[in-house]
Write a structure and sequence with these properties.
Elements lengths: L4 H16 L27 E8 L11 H16 L6 E8 L4 H14 L4 E5 L2 H13 L4 E4 L5 H4 L6 E3 L4 H15 L4 E7 L2 H13 L6 E8 L7 H8 L5 E5 L2 H13 L6 E4 L6 H4 L11 E4 L13 H13 L8 H19 L5 H7 L6 E2 L8 E2 L11 E8 L2 E4 L4 E2 H5 L5
Parallel strand pairs: 1-2, 1-3, 3-4, 4-5, 6-7, 6-8, 8-9
Antiparallel strand pairs: 10-13, 11-12, 13-14, 13-15
Helix pairs in contact: 1-12, 2-11, 2-12, 3-4, 6-7, 8-9
Pfam family, one: Peripla_BP_6
Keywords: Signal
Protein name: Leucine-binding protein domain-containing protein
Length: 422
């Protein structure tokens, strides 16, 4: 048990934040004591808070450009109808790095030094976040809830100002390995992966998870984000005649791999698509008839799933996206992701003991089963001493008809596989 006087105080604050959430419009700003004196208040006042996000609005990963639309819709809603976060109006500045790490560094510097943001809220992509986290930590700027599941955000002790949000890639890989052990315990597996920290993290996690089993990887192919096509890699993988195809890609290449799988009519493997490419926008161009039975995983509610048709949070989300992000399609899951992570930031700020950069840094690392209404039932935010992974629960899903369909139970990878450590 991780209990201390400080921990209990944080727990109480999280509980208050969880109960109040967006409804709490009071000022949480001024500290009751001098404990916050001397801490950084750049980008935050009693009435406003400035955040900066870095996304690939252009380039090979531009599909992720829908995420900040969901975030901004949430913040605009909270600003207009709930008095902001703790009485502070949120200004969310979005920069485009084109999925290019050097550009991400340039934009991070611009946000911190020119725009003087309070925090870098969301830098998308493992390469871009890797390129910027040294800078963020040297400047002691919170880089919170980054949009990448690389395991190092939770295992590295040298970067306390940076933390992830979504389930890490190693835990996701473990879930797929567990599924295959039960369904196809002797399967031969072919893998396509992005040749960077993202792809290697998930692939290596999968390899470790199948050690000691009869599951074997019989073919591997990598691609670069600058490649125009992955058709040559897919032809090589099809030649393996593997039983399972593990597709570790970002959206553009995920769609290409699905299409190539269809064209290789002599090869009909079980297709596992990693979560970051499992959006409806990836599958639709291939044709829904051609992607039936594809397996993936999730941890937040799918706006296309009728299970959530009368869900209060989903109803609110769709109403407010239409109101505050006119022209955006609320049925695109990347917007739903944005809404959920923005709500998570809101809860973390509600729980912070100090309205400072240090206060936010500490708050995101001391979240105790904080509910986020857009996450799947049973999935909460939880961090603490020795555990810097906010979300580590997922549920498997398969594509049927025109949507993803959840199956099985929510898997808490902490309990099933043990904690992930550096």
């Amino acid at each position: 048990m991780r209990v201390s006087a400080i921990g209990c105080t944080a727990l109480l604050l999280v509980a208050v934040g969880a109960c109040g959430g967006r409804e709490s419009g009071g000022d949480s700003g001024t500290a009751a004591s001098g404990q916050c004196q001397g801490q950084q208040t750049t980008g935050i006042t009693d009435k406003s808070i400035k955040l900066g996000g870095i996304y690939p609005l252009s380039g090979p990963a531009s599909a992720y450009g829908d995420i900040p639309k969901g975030i901004k819709a949430y913040f605009d809603y909270v600003n207009a109808e709930k008095g902001g976060i703790g009485g502070r109006t949120v200004e969310f500045i979005v920069r485009d790095d084109g999925y290019q790490p050097p550009k991400a560094v340039e934009e991070a510097r611009r946000l911190v030094e020119q725009d003087q943001v309070f925090a870098l809220f969301q830098t998308l992509g493992t390469p871009s976040t890797t390129a910027t986290w040294d800078y963020a930590n040297q400047r002691k700027v919170p880089q919170v809830f980054v949009a990448t599941g690389a395991s190092k955000w939770g295992t590295d002790g040298a970067h306390p100002w940076t933390i992830g949000w979504q389930p890490n890639y190693v835990s996701e890989a473990r879930v797929y390995a567990q599924y295959l052990k039960a369904e196809q315990p002797s399967a031969k597996i072919a893998v396509l992966f992005q040749n960077d920290d993202f792809g290697k993290d998930l692939l290596n996690g999968f390899k470790r998870a199948i050690e000691g089993t009869q599951l074997t990887i019989v073919a591997e192919q990598s691609y670069e984000v600058t490649d125009p096509s992955i058709d040559p890699q897919m032809r090589n993988l099809a030649g393996s005649k593997a039983d399972v195809f593990l597709n570790i890609t970002t959206p553009k290449f995920g769609s290409q791999a699905l299409a190539a799988d269809v064209r290789n009519t002599g090869w009909n493997p079980l297709h596992i698509l990693n979560n970051v490419a499992a959006s409806i926008t990836v599958l639709k161009p291939v044709g829904f008839d051609n992607v039936q039975g594809v397996v993936s995983s999730s941890y937040y509610k799918d706006p296309n799933d009728p299970t959530w048709a009368t869900d209060a949070e989903m109803t609110l989300y769709k109403q407010k996206v239409k109101q505050y992000a006119p022209g955006a399609d609320p049925n695109i899951p990347y917007l739903t992701f944005g809404w959920a992570v923005a709500n998570s930031f809101h809860k973390a700020m509600d729980a912070a003991k100090c309205p400072t950069r240090e206060g936010l840094r500490d708050s995101v690392r001391d979240l105790r089963n904080v509910p986020i209404d857009m996450l799947l039932p049973g999935v909460t935010l939880s961090t603490g001493q020795g555990d810097a992974f906010p979300i580590e629960s997922m549920q498997l899903m398969t594509f049927k008809g025109q949507r993803w369909e959840l199956f099985g139970k929510v898997i808490d990878t902490r309990k099933v596989f043990g904690p992930l450590t550096g």
